[in-house]
């Protein structure tokens, strides 16, 4: 385990896709003085934590990988979790990052010291001072447990899909699954054959499209190995195809009609029972919630040992789940597939900017950041996959990579111009946020007739980018110093 230095130029919180990518790209620019602080005992972020049976990515592998590190070895068009985790480990090793990753270092607090123009980052295993702090803690890293009365009194086995209990055998058990989003759709078909009885508690049905996964054969891999340019072309093709969805999501929802028809046909073909089909038919516009890609979710829900329960869960008893009207279903295990704290990230309570103000306090009325990356009052802090950077239609790795470019250029600027601190001007941040909100106003995520994790408690969509990835890339291609208060090192008497 490397020793945590007292001082570093850049400290990165988190070793998922966005954090690893940032550290790799900075090192490629000659910024060698980088530490990555990781709370867990392994790297990989959400791809380390989400090990539930069937965990896979619903974005094609060629796009769900770093542009600078194409992988000709993907075994499927949609990669499985172990392969994605192996890819991240491979990248960390190949780009010489392992000596800079500090595992088991959970960030307890990061405080901006204005006089010294440094972040003091206190972790469970030591403290480091950094000129630049990069928070890559991930929007989908902290599980959200449902607020169901009595859940804490349950005496059986209870766990979240994002922290799967692999030591627990579900064979022959009575199992309750709460939630029917992307995670449940992947593990329900895997556990259905094991469980004695499986109750799937659905609050809102998902729109489900066929996944059409395929294995990538030896010849294909050999071709990609020999011609990386061809793999890049395929990646570009997938990227452009996915961008088309933006028009349906953000401009004219009528464009989603074809996809909705395909989803309805998929449901009709896979669910012959009209009663079950009615339960699984969404009553909101497609895209309002994350679209699920699956070929085996519907068939699993139709098996004789499975019951789809649409009555509201009233409470959980010591060994049962009770729905509206007092109907009690005895269960041995409850699996919460209830998503993550995307709009109220715990890390925001631990980062304190100028005057000691926490990021959570700055976000009291909702998350906002300039270009999803910088927040006024938090100098030299760069958020990766921050507010409004999510992609409902495409690979979020593309958004992180756009932010990497912005971060690289900002660090270059700090170095080349002997700058102590940059702090985004409030009017630049609010102007940007207003423009995002105006664009958001026309989208299916706001007007689609659903409530999703994309929205915060005030009903604002603070998670997704409401346009093409290309537009975000253009905005983040350069560090636009005019939008920042810039404090020179010499003028401020800041030590170097
Ligand atoms: P999710 O999409 O947030 O789904 C949570 C589910 O739990 C929903 O069905 C929700 O119902 C239900 N739920 C929440 N609280 C509840 C309560 N108190 N009582 C009853 N039901 C409740 O979570 P997720 O499936 O873990 O997916 C989260 C995100 O992770 C996805 O949208 C996606 O971005 C990502 N993900 C990606 C992949 C992939 O393949 N790349 C796989 C898994 C996850 P409502 O819909 O009514 O709120």
Give the gist of this structure.
The protein is α/β, with parallel strands linked by helices.
Keyword list:
496 residues; alpha/beta; eight-stranded mixed sheet; five-stranded parallel sheet; 31% helix; globular; binds NADP nicotinamide-adenine-dinucleotide phosphate
Q: Can you characterise this structure?
A:
The protein is of the alpha/beta class and 496 residues long. The chain is globular, with a radius of gyration of 23 Å. Helix content is 31%, strand content 18%. Strands 1, 2, 3, 4, 5, 6, 17 and 18 form an 8-stranded mixed β-sheet that branches. It has helices at residues 17-28, 46-49, 81-94, 182-191, 218-226, 228-251, 257-270, 274-280, 297-301, 359-362, 396-416, 426-440, 444-447, 469-476, 489-492; strands spanning 7-13, 34-37, 101-102, 107-113, 118-123, 126-135, 157-160, 174-178, 197-201, 208-209, 292-293, 306-309, 313-317, 320-323, 327-330, 333-336, 351-352, 381-383, 419-424, 484-488. The protein binds NADP nicotinamide-adenine-dinucleotide phosphate.
């Amino acid at each position: 385990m490397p020793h945590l230095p007292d001082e570093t130029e850049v400290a990165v919180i988190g070793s998922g896709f966005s954090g690893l990518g940032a550290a790799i790209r900075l090192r490629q620019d000659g910024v060698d003085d980088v530490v990555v602080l990781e709370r867990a005992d392994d790297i990989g972020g959400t791809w380390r934590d989400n090990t539930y049976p069937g965990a896979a990515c619903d974005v094609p592998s060629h796009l769900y990988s770093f542009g600078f590190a194409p992988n000709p070895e993907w075994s499927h068009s949609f990669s499985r979790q172990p392969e994605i985790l192996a890819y991240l480990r491979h990248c960390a090793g190949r780009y010489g990052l392992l000596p800079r990753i500090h595992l088991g270092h959970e960030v307890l607090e990061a405080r901006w010291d204005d006089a010294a123009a440094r972040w003091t980052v206190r972790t469970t295993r030591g403290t480091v001072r950094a000129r630049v702090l990069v928070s890559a803690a991930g929007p989908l890293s902290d599980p959200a447990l449902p607020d169901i009365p009595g859940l804490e009194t349950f005496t059986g086995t209870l766990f979240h899909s994002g922290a799967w209990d692999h030591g627990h055998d579900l064979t022959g058990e009575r199992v309750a699954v709460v939630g029917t989003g992307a995670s449940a759709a992947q593990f329900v078909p895997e556990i259905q054959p094991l469980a004695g009885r499986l109750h799937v508690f659905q609050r809102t049905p998902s729109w489900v499209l066929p996944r059409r996964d395929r294995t990538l054969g030896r010849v294909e891999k050999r071709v990609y190995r020999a011609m990386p340019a061809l793999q890049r072309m395929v990646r570009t093709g997938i990227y452009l195809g996915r961008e088309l969805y933006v028009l349906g999501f953000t401009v004219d929802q009528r464009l989603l009609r074809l996809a909705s028809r395909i989803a309805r046909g998929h449901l009709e073909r896979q669910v012959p029972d009209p009663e079950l089909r009615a339960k699984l038919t969404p009553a909101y516009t497609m895209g309002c919630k994350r679209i699920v890609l699956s070929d085996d979710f519907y068939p699993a829900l139709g098996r004789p040992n499975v019951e789809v329960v649409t009555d509201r869960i009233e409470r959980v008893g010591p060994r049962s789940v009770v729905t509206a009207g007092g109907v009690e279903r005895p269960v041995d295990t409850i699996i919460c597939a209830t998503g993550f704290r995307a709009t109220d990230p715990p890390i925001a309570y631990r980062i304190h900017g100028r005057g000691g103000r926490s990021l959570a306090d700055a976000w009291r009325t909702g998350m906002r950041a300039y270009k999803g990356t910088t927040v006024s009052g938090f100098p030299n802090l760069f958020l990766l996959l921050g507010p409004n950077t999510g992609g409902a239609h495409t690979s979020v790795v593309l958004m992180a990579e756009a932010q990497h470019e912005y971060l690289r250029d900002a660090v270059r600027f700090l170095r080349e111009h002997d700058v102590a601190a940059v702090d985004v001007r409030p009017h630049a941040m609010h102007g940007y946020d207003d423009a995002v909100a105006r664009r958001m106003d026309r989208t299916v995520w706001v007007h689609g007739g659903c409530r999703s994790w994309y929205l915060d408690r005030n009903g604002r969509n603070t998670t997704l980018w409401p346009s093409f990835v290309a537009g975000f890339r253009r905005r983040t291609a350069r560090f636009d110093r005019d939008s920042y208060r810039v404090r020179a090192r010499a003028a401020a008497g800041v030590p170097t």
